[in-house]
């Protein structure tokens, strides 16, 4: 944070007459893959701590965050309360959900794994069933394609320095078309877009029934029902055996039907939709993680590429239509093809 931004932030906080802050407690809380930064500040007399979002207005717009937070809270989801806002300068004052992400909770309370995921899936069903989509964009074909094209540009082109052949471009164009068609054929609901273990904050005490607060929802769209399920169950930051993922997917499917969501009645077909949606998302993520390294200097995201690549190979190895993608990955990695098709 520049000295100028810091002074602007302190001046804004000081001018919020309904709060009395101890500015000596102002400290970095976290950052994310965007230009946003988060700070924690205490109120005088240790009443509570609050979070300040710093989003430089030439890089980020805080208004979508405020709008989506309102939609989520109106629908009964636990999004942080926006206590004060200054969209012109790019500052928000937010409820503090603490320091512990679901991912950190999983690492320290391994015995709570199933309870954590069942609560996260319950919260997801409630979010999808009760959150209005007014004022948020549709997750259309153009956006889905634009995201997958990041794979070509940043993962293939920048990370490997490889130029696609005409045949490979045709293969990818066909595969992307199938993935887009599948996504658009799904029921369209509120989609968080990053509903995963780093964006769910564990706000319950250890040993108690888990409760989560939801963050990083400002890019929400109206889109495919399976998208957020892929985000949480094929998370780019923690991996589970396929049998476990299938079990949780079936339990989500049952809960979604009970809640009246327009989910596919055939669980096998829904799992195919889940696979296809996952492949779209993970092609995008390979491109984004490469871009975060080469454009933004955030090299830590390269450490997460192997897990995402395993997800891509898992799905590409399951459907014969995606064999060309395996061939491309093998060319990039100089690996021999080892695949058994089930569909």
TrEMBL record:
Residues 26-252 form the Aminoglycoside phosphotransferase domain. Pfam families: APH (PF01636). It comes from the Bacteria. Keywords: ATP-binding, Nucleotide-binding. This is Phosphotransferase.
């Amino acid at each position: 944070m520049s000295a100028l931004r810091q002074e602007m932030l302190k001046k804004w906080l000081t001018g919020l007459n309904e709060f009395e802050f101890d500015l000596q407690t102002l400290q970095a809380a976290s950052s994310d893959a965007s230009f946003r930064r988060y700070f924690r500040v205490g109120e005088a007399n240790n009443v509570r701590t609050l979070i300040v979002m710093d989003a430089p207005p030439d890089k980020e717009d805080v208004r979508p965050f405020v709008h989506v937070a309102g939609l989520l809270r109106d629908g009964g989801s636990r999004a942080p309360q926006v206590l004060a806002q200054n969209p012109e300068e790019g500052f928000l004052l937010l409820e503090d959900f603490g320091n512990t992400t679901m991912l950190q909770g999983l690492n320290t309370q391994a015995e709570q794994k199933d309870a954590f995921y069942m609560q996260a899936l319950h919260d997801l069903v409630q979010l999808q069933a009760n959150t209005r989509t007014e004022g948020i964009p549709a997750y259309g074909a153009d956006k889905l394609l634009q995201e997958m094209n990041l794979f070509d540009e940043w993962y293939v082109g920048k990370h490997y320095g490889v130029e696609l052949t005409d045949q490979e471009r045709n293969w990818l164009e066909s595969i992307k078309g199938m993935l887009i068609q599948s996504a658009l054929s799904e029921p369209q609901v509120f989609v968080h877009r990053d509903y995963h273990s780093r964006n769910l904050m564990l706000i319950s005490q250890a040993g108690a029934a888990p409760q989560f607060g939801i963050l990083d929802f400002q890019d929400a769209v109206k889109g495919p029902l399976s998208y957020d399920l892929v985000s949480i169950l094929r998370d780019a930051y923690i991996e589970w055996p396929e049998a476990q993922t299938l079990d949780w997917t079936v339990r989500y499917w049952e809960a979604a039907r009970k809640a009246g969501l327009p989910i596919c009645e055939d669980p096998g077909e829904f799992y195919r939709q889940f696979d296809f949606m996952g492949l779209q998302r993970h092609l995008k993520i390979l491109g984004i993680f490469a871009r975060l390294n080469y454009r933004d200097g955030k090299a830590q995201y390269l450490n997460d590429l192997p897990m995402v690549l395993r997800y891509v190979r898992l799905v590409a190895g399951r459907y014969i239509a995606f064999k060309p993608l395996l061939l491309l990955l093998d060319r990039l990695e100089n690996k021999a093809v080892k695949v058994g098709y089930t569909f």
